[in-house]
Write a structure and sequence with these properties.
By secondary structure, the protein is mainly α. It has 7 helices and no strands.
């Protein structure tokens, strides 16, 4: 095998490796996308029309990953929010 053939073989193998990596990360179904649209439809209320797109996205993510958010320590999150700002400390009396 010549050096040119070896280089061509390596390029082909690199291409195959890249394609296999892409294939591995592709979702097997569209269930995640469908879940996202279902969640958005449930959240599409008056509040949705008055909130920004960034906040709507955040609310959707929280709704979709409800199992994870149910395990969060709300008191610790509230304390972190309060101590992050002096005006919050004075308002909430922390």
């Amino acid at each position: 095998m010549t050096a040119l053939q070896t280089m061509a073989s390596h390029k082909v193998l690199d291409q195959v490796t890249a394609l296999l990596r892409l294939l591995i990360v592709l979702p097997a179904s569209t269930a995640t996308a469908e879940r996202s649209f279902s969640a958005l439809r449930r959240l599409k209320t008056y509040l949705r029309s008055t909130m920004s797109a960034e906040r709507l996205n955040s609310v959707c993510v929280l709704n979709i990953h409800r199992e994870l958010t149910d395990e969060l320590d709300i008191v610790a999150i509230m304390n972190a929010f309060i101590v992050a700002n002096d005006s919050r400390k004075s308002f909430f009396g922390h």
